[in-house]
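Writing this down once: the sequence line spells out the residues, with the fold written below as integer tokens. I am pasting one below:
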Amino acid sequence: QVQLVESGGGLVQAGGSLRLSCAASGRTFSNYAMGWFRQAPGKEREFVAAIAGSGARTYYADSVKGRFTISRDNAKNTLYLQMNSLKPEDTAVYHCAAARLGAGLTTNVGSYDYWGQGTQVTVSS
């Protein structure tokens, strides 16, 4: 029901910035809480940030708090992740995800029903 496509990944130096975008299909985008997750080689997928359907509430993993900002433009059916002060440990494939209809802001992977294919972020030291 929801198709998600990430973009904006790339190679940056430590301390640099990058903005990821996630384009969503459909006309009910605002009904979905959204999240960003990342997965590094050999590592489990980890939660990064989440945002309520309205955009009024956000939540961040401790590892990115103060550096990353999640936002959304419901009129454009687009989710964003602004990443500042990037560190080599931020290197991963970043995925956006949409939670089930009716779910509020959540960090629970099990609440996310739809996933994008991911975009690579590489931070050099």
The CA atoms of residues 50 and 106 lie 7 Å apart.
